Amino acid sequence: MTLGTPLADEVITVGCPVVVLIGVVAALWRARQHTGRQRWVWALLAVGVLAWCLNSVMIDWQGWTGELVRRGGASALSISLTAVCTLAGTVAFGLLLTIANTPGGVVRDALDSALITAAACGLTWYALFGAPEDVAAATGGRLTSMVGVVIVAELFAVAVTVHTALRMRRRHPGLGMVCLGVVSLVAGDAGSAALVIHDPSASSDAIAWSSVLASVLLLAGAASGRAATTKDDDGRSLLSSGALPCFAALLALATSLPAALAGRAGPVDAWLHLMVLVLLLVRALLLARDGDLLMRGLEQRVAARTRDLASTERRFASLVIHGSDVMTVVGADGVITYVSPAALRVFGIDPCHLVGKSMDALVTSEGDRTLLDAVVSALGAPGSRRRFRMTAPHATGRQVVLDVCVTGLTDDPAIAGVVINSHDVSEAVRLEEELSHQAFSDALTGLPNRALFRDRVEHALRSRGTRGPVEVCYLDLDGFKEVNDTLGHGAGDELLVAVAERLRATVREGDTVARLGGDEFAVLLDEATGEREPERLAQRLCDAVRRPFIVRGVEVNVATSVGLASTDTTGRDVQRLLRSADLAMYQAKSQRQGGYATYHPRMHEQLLERVRLETDLRRAVEQHQFRVVYQPLVDMGTGGVNGVEALVRWHHPERGVISPVTFIPLAESTGLIGAIGEYVLREACRQVAAWRSEVPGAENMRVSVNLSAPQLDDPDLVGLVTRTLEETGLPATSLVLEVTEGVLVDQHEAALTTLNALRGLGIRLAIDDFGTGYSSLSYLHRLPVDILKIDKSFVDRLSDNGDLSLVDAILSMATTLGLATVAEGIEHEHQRSALAAQGCDIGQGYHFSPPVEAADMPGVITAALHTASSRGAGHLEHVGDVEHVEQEVAR
Length: 891
Description:
The chain crosses the membrane at residues 12-29, 41-59, 79-99, 111-131, 143-162, 174-195, 207-225, 237-258, 270-288. This protein is an alpha/beta fold. It has 33 helices and 24 strands.
């Protein structure tokens, strides 16, 4: 059937190949977007459609040349035969690739499609053309054969298309449109074939229009970018069941049945039936083979699964038998049915002795009662699980700590009871307790450490509420460093252990003694029984520590400073309570050794004042706010000034002059005394060296500089003094270094080595404040000293009661040891005369002169020299008159 107009024929002739070629290009483009089978599917579709396009072009070419008119529709049919077979083959193979995963699957699906084709051939032929014999008689055998081949090829393509559409497990929108295109193409070609059979000279545009429609669908399918979606499959389709062979055979018989009844069945029907039977036979053989392979595969999988189950069973049996946990199975009647061999290791009992016994008979303790209750609960609650910790006796009598898990498995036929898993955690618990003890106890003394002490203080604050105050004591040993330095750290550790034992024996029952670290201890007092009980306990602690200790065969004497703090004055904050006790302890240490102090809020203010003063002191060192003043040392025989003592003064920019009594101890505790002492040493040496060369009467002047304990511990002290003497030009014999009696007595061997090295340079050493209570006489013979400075307290006795005995004893001892003497603090003439009469060498004090600035010192030297020469030594007291000193300086 044609459109009837030349223009329409031209449009069809030119447009059809163009549209088909566009579809081919789209299919090739889609093939490039995919990999694997999908790429092959679209490539084969493109080849098939291209073959069909070439077929259309060849037919149109014959139409233009007139060959098609001369030879009729048979010529077009012969040309289409190759294209149809190519299209059917490529489409069928391509679509079969989308549903089959193996070569065998491709063959099986091809046979199914061939069965559908064979069954449908007869029905299609009779519907379109009539009986085969009638068609052959009317058109000739060759044309009929060509039509038959075309119909078979096209029906095979349709069968594969339908088969693919039904077998696809995922919906592919693109391939679905391609399938519709194939059906439309076959339908158009079949219509054209029927027209040729009935009128060989006729031609039709059905092929062209079907080609256009197929190409459009192919183009749409290629352009579709939607992903494949899962297709619902209930597994009961005809193609997936064994009914397909029967359906194909019945369809073939139904097609030829009318002809057979009319007596018109021919060879075509016979060949059709034969093809169906052959295909059925081949398919049956394939099904048998597949069934055999499936059965073998199933048998192999079952055998492998059986081996896996057996291996798993052996594995779990080995785990139970050789595991460290005790596995116990209790039946529904409460009787033990199984106990794993681990019971022998955990409990020391043979498992055979436990099997068959009732759980009730094993209850001997509260822990067993807990286990029994858990078993009873699990028997009534299938699937339940309960975990707890308990102890159980070992055959040797010790206790075993267990983590127990009781699981109800009464609904499991293999168990039908309760499973008890018992894990021995005795060692873990022991280690946990040991670690806890180490975390909260002092390793050396065994006392609670700082963390545990704080925890107990917090507990006391919570538990006592408002019933009464909470009191704590902080203790710090005095003299512990000297024990470490002289006897070694091992002896220091022994001393700490001995102190801890003595503190434990001194406190009351219920009090907590702790070691905070180093030589610091603390005591938490239980509820006090009296108003003065904390103070009485603090005094007992001081007295206990003050008693001598024997460490490595040596008697050791130490003391302790105790700080008391109570929530009555600090409030119920644990941090503030402990800080207050610490502050009170330092207050006690600053007052005297071996005493105690009770916290008072003003101590906090004193602490703040100390912090502010320390800050200012550091700034003073940086900004050089210190200056050196000098107090004359007067010869008691001649009245001349033969030396000076260098004294440091701090001029604070806001507070004015701050007493050395205030800032020197602070400088020693903060480590600033080194910088201050170095400044005083350098300035004093420089100034005296200048006076020796410039001031008449000062040619042999000496300078005395004080040394503190931290300075004496400085390993660079000898180097510092040596460098200072070299830089200033002061002779070593003109420098006197003064050390207090307490510092000298407490020094260790390293400090004595330093003193000997200084004395080896020619420097003279003096003991300051001699006779103030230390055991000086027992140490004096081994100290490298040259001068004794008699403390002012002994000089004051001369004014109080005229007692010369102590001064006379000191002077006699100095004479015996060949030491020079200096009397400090002389303020009156009768003191000077009495000391001079007893043989004291040098005097120092306000009777002669107060400390003066460096600029004023030459005048004092000159005045003293003039007075001594004009009036004699007995009248040197006038030099000490302040007005006279000022007049002499001015003159």
